[in-house]
Amino acid sequence: MQQNTEEKNDLELRSLDTVCINESQLQHRWYHNLKYLFLGILFGFIFIKAEVISWFRIQEMFRLQSFHMYGIIGSAILVAMISIFIIKKFNIKTIYGEEIIFHKKKFNKGQIYGGLIFGFGWALTGACPGPLFAQIGTGATVVVVTLFSAIAGTWVYGYFRDKLPH
Question: Keyword Electron transport on this protein (predicted)?
C-alpha cells in the first residue's frame, strides 16, 4: 500500500513536467541525435552574431539601458505564440506522426520564486543557461563556473522538489 501511494505521488509530481507527458516513445539509433548537435552549433553561432551571449548586452538589459535583448526575447515569444497557434489550428504532428499535446498548467507561487531566482542568477552572472556553451566556446572560460552552478542548481531542485511549492 505504501509503495502505491509513493508511486501515485510520484506520478502526480511528474505530471507537472510536460516532458514526462509528451515524451516520445520512439527508439532511434545513436546517430539520430547528431542533428540536434548540429542545430545546437548553428544556434550557438546565431547567438554569437546576435550578441545574445554578450555579458554587456545582458547587463544593458537588466539596467534598462538598451532594447536589444528585449527585442530578441519579444520576437522569440511572438514566433512561439504563432507557432503554437498554427500547431493547434491545423493539428500538426511531429515528423514521426506523433500528436503534439499542450496541457494546461495552473499558476502557482513556485513559478514566482523560480522566476526570481532565475532572473537574479541571470543578472548576476550575465549568462542565461541557453547560451552557456556558446559563451564558453568564444573563450569566456570563466562561464564554466556558471555552467557548474546551473548543474548544481538543477540537482538541488531535483533533490528538494517534493518539498518545494508547486
Answer: no
Q: Integer distance in angstroms from the first to the last C-alpha of the chain?
A: 25
Say whether both 153 and 122 belong to one domain.
yes
Q: Which domain holds residue 86?
A: 67-103
pLDDT tens figures, 122-157:
888 888 887 888 888 888 888 899 999 989 988 998
Identify whether residues 58 and 116 lie together within a single domain.
yes
Is 116 found in the same domain as 94? no
Q: State phi, psi for 126 to the nearest 5 degrees.
A: 70, 25
With 0-12 / 13-18 / 19 or more C-beta atoms within 10 angstroms meaning exposed / middle / buried, residue 6 is exposed
- Condensed to tens digits (0 to 9), the pLDDT of residues 96-114 reads 888 888 888 788 888 888 8
